């Protein structure tokens, strides 16, 4: 016990009921030497039923707190970010999700592609929006046509002529090293693709199907990120995990959720200061339409509220947000 407290009478637990405590009112005093090293501490815990965090930190779904940059950093460090929904349009929120999903991945599915008629300026626009240069070039600038080349940062980094057509700077199809879908994606064999990258010192490896169409990319930057951030919160395809906040009204949340699914979102947090019945209706609708999408409900501040959620929709909820307290602008 702290020396200042040794001679003071101890209060019964019942006498503390109903009192408020601030951080400064409580001091935790270590009373023994730990018998383990700090690097032996394992903080791994479940955020939801299926999402596991190696660093148990989750960003708030509140207005303006988390966008792509913070969500990326949270996931790299072993936590997870929840992107708020206070954008002018739903598509703006979805673009933030796409930035997170494209930051780090094993196989980059549905890659951004351009046509030979696009310009160097278009490649720089992609870098500004998503943070990368490597772009496959297809016959008509869509994934439905054959691969004809690729543009990487090496091709454009010293170019000042932004209006030059990509057909004049790209590495053409006949000079590309590629991998087959049958040997990589179909077998979920990322190591095979990584070996090709290392062997040929490539920035980007296109994965093509039997019709010479691009189905995915593998990049060397993702190999480096995997080594640099061993605690990162990732899905089965090595993409960073990210959740989004959605409205607490079903008719408002449906369009947002449907678009987020296409972007590869991992879960939603129903954003409300206090949980109420319609949240369970949203959770039920999600599980009936997108059973793999995880749902976080809340907030709750009592065992009775948790009990009601368990009784009314436990099979639809993957986690419950607990806690209400004073904030700078309100009490939530």
Automatic annotation (TrEMBL):
Spell out the protein name for this chain. CBS domain-containing protein
What protein family does this chain belong to? Belongs to the IMPDH/GMPR family.
Domain CBS, by residue range, is 107-169, 170-233
Cite the entry's keywords alphabetically: CBS domain, Metal-binding, Oxidoreductase
Sorted alphabetically, which Pfam families does this protein's record hold? CBS, IMPDH
One of the entry's Gene Ontology molecular-function terms is: metal ion binding
Keyword presence, Oxidoreductase: yes
GO BP terms: namely: GTP biosynthetic process
- CDD domains xrefs: CBS_pair_IMPDH
In terms of SUPFAM superfamilies, this protein maps to:
CBS-domain pair, Inosine monophosphate dehydrogenase (IMPDH)
| Organism name | Candidatus Nealsonbacteria bacterium CG01_land_8_20_14_3_00_12
């Amino acid at each position: 016990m702290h020396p200042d407290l040794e001679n003071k009478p101890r209060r019964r637990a019942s006498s503390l009921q109903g009192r408020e405590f601030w951080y400064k009112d409580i001091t935790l005093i270590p009373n023994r030497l730990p018998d383990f090293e700090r690097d032996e501490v394992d903080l791994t815990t479940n955020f939801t039923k299926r999402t596991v965090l190696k660093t148990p930190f989750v960003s708030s779904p509140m207005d303006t707190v988390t966008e792509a940059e913070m969500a990326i950093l949270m996931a790299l460090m072993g936590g997870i970010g929840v992107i708020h929904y206070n954008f002018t349009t739903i598509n703006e929120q979805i673009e933030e999700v796409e930035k997170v999903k494209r930051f780090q991945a094993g196989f980059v599915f549905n890659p951004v592609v351009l046509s030979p008629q696009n310009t160097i300026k278009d490649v720089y626009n992609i870098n500004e929006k998503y943070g990368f240069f490597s772009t496959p070039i297809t016959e008509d600038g869509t994934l439905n046509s054959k691969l004809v080349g690729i543009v990487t940062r090496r091709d454009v980094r010293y170019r000042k002529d932004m209006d030059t057509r990509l057909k004049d700077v790209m590495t053409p199809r006949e000079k590309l090293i590629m991998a087959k879908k049958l040997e990589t994606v179909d077998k979920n064999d990322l190591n095979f693709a990584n070996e090709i990258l290392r062997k040929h010192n490539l920035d980007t490896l296109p994965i093509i199907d039997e019709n010479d169409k691009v189905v995915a990319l593998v990049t060397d930057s993702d190999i480096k990120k995997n080594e640099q951030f061993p605690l990162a919160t990732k899905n089965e395809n090595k993409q960073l995990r990210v959740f989004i906040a959605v409205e607490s009204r079903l008719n408002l949340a449906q369009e947002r959720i449907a678009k987020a699914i296409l972007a590869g979102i991992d879960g939603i947090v129903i954003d409300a200061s206090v949980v109420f019945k319609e949240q369970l209706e949203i959770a039920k609708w999600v599980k009936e339409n997108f059973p793999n999408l995880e749902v976080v409900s809340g907030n709750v501040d009592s065992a009775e509220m948790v009990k009601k959620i368990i009784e009314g929709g436990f099979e639809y909820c993957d986690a419950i947000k607990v806690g209400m307290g004073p904030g700078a602008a309100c009490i939530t």
